[in-house]
């Protein structure tokens, strides 16, 4: 679960308790228009109001946090499926303003 903070950052929340787990900061201050998790929950894509797309690999972020003893207390993401490409992502964004709903 996630929510925006002041329209510029995305806060990840534990679903059952809404306890904050982490805050993701966008590199540009244009504000987040909408965001979506991947089906397995391991990636988060956010479209900013200036149409830039930010993509976070939450599996990698958690690995780095775990190495520092800072990972949140939830089960790890499922392992990467065999044959999946790593390192590159293809993302298609359709410019349809009516498809964007305000984030609360």
List keywords for this structure.
three-stranded antiparallel sheet; 1 helix; 104 residues; single chain; mainly beta
Order of helices and strands: EEEEEEH
Shape: globular
Task: Count every helix, treating DSSP H or I runs of 4 or more residues as helices.
Answer: 1
Please report the distance between the alpha carbons of the first and last residues.
12 Å
What percent strand? 25-35%
- Spatially, the strands of the biggest sheet line up as 1-2-3
Mean pLDDT: 77
Instruction: Give helix % range.
Output: under 10%
The biggest beta sheet, please? 3 strands, antiparallel
Radius of gyration: 14 Å
pLDDT < 50 runs, ≥5 residues: none
Number of strands: 6
SSE-based structural type: mainly beta
Task: Give a quick precis of the structure.
The protein is mainly beta and 104 residues long. It has one helix at 58-67, and strands at residues 2-5, 9-13, 20-25, 32-37, 43-48, 53-57.
Summarize the structure in words:
By secondary structure, this protein is mainly beta. 10% of the residues lie in helices and 31% in strands. It contains 1 helix and 6 strands; from the N terminus they run ββββββα. The chain has one helix spanning 58-67; strands at residues 2-5, 9-13, 20-25, 32-37, 43-48, 53-57. Strands 1-2-3 form a 3-stranded antiparallel beta sheet, with no helix packed on it. The protein has a 3-stranded antiparallel beta sheet with strand order 4-5-6. The protein is globular, with a radius of gyration of 14 Å. The chain starts with a strand and ends in a 37-residue tail after the last helix. 6% of the residues are buried. The mean pLDDT is 77.
């Amino acid at each position: 679960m996630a929510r925006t903070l002041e329209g510029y950052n995305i806060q990840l929340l534990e679903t059952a308790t809404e306890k904050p787990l982490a805050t993701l900061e966008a590199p540009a201050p244009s504000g987040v228009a909408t965001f979506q998790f991947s089906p397995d929950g391991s990636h988060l894509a956010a479209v900013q109001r200036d149409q830039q797309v930010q993509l976070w690999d939450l599996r990698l972020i958690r690995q780095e946090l775990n190495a520092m003893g800072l990972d949140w207390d939830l089960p790890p993401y499922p392992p990467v499926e065999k044959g999946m490409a790593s390192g590159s992502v293809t993302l298609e964004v359709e410019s349809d303003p009516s498809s964007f709903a305000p984030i609360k």
